[in-house]
Amino acid sequence: MPQLNPSPWFFIMLASWMTYSMIIQPKILSFLSTNPPSSKAPTTPPTTPWTWPWT
Question: Where is this region: Disordered (predicted)?
Fold first, then answer.
């Protein structure tokens, strides 16, 4: 079964991960975020308990 032979596929996987790690990933990480994190504290809206009609 040729699928179990790691000889050609291991090199292809290793080359693609090295390409991703060294070339593509730094270019993607250099983009500015469209939604930067804000420094203000998150506020939670006031909640009211649900009133069930049968209780």
Answer: 35-55
